[in-house]
Amino acid sequence: SPPPSPPCSPPFLALISSTLLTRGHICPYSCLCPDHHTVDCTGRGLTRVPDSIPLNVRRLLLSNNWIPWIPSDFLVLYSDLVYLDLRNNSLSLLEPGTLSTSSKLVFLDLGSNNLTEISSGTFRESRSLIKLRLGNNPYLNMVGRDPLTGLTSLRELELQRNGLTALDVTVLESLPSLRMLRLEGNPWLCNCHFAKLFVWLTENRQKLPQGMEGIECSLPLDGRRVPLSLLSEDSFRECRGTLTLTDYLIVIFSGISVSVAAIMASFFLASTVHCFQRLSKGSKGDEEEGND
Ligand SMILES: *[C@@H]1O[C@H](CO)[C@@H](O)[C@H](O)[C@H]1NC(C)=O
Ligand SMILES: *[C@@H]1O[C@H](CO)[C@@H](O)[C@H](O)[C@H]1NC(C)=O
Question: What angle do CA 64, 144, 238 make, to 5 degrees?
């Protein structure tokens, strides 16, 4: 409880002393702070991360706002954060390294934003991360291999309803704790690259909350969408030779260059032989002349 203020203290002193007394319990304007570790700014029409969030915040709820950007030192500042909800904002880019120092972060919701890419190094040190929600980012078409490696605790990964046409299966193989994965509602392409993902999904069906339902891929030729439940590993048997288009092109082009080399070699040989014959004829002629 605050001590009684001295009778004639100027108002600014009272302000300063009350600020000092409530240090650690400051609540950002228009947010709610139901306990010492929670700041709840859900649906406040915010266009940026509020100032004066207590540095020891552990649960920060910022969903349903219009926040387009988080400062790259955000998690350096709020290093006790365990739970960060940024769902349904306007984030389009995470600067590399923004979340890489978050060694305590367990829950991160970036769903329903406008992210286009998860660049490498994004979650570098997030070894405590258990739930990562990245769904409903319709332009998110690139999840590289690097950003998710090292997430050794990650149990739940949501990538549903994004713009993914492909996903390197090694991303999933590098997540040893993964229990739940959502991939439905992406414009997957049924090509040989997807074949590897298909095999992984078949073998890890229990990790998909709705099984193969809702996962479709489109055929490369006519774009027709095929539910994965209608496909089998046999559907991708043409990929088993593991020759991709690039491989074929290399084979064709090396074939062409081998034939070109062979033609040039034989031409060279032929002309050498021809010259040699002419030379030897010439010398024979000389010999004959000499004999005469
Ligand atoms: C997303 O946030 C906006 C702005 O607060 C809100 O109007 C909308 O209902 C929210 N959408 C969802 C699905 O929660
Ligand atoms: C989301 O990103 C796309 C592509 O980068 C852009 O065209 C669109 O205007 C963005 N939408 C919002 C609401 O920021």
Answer: 120
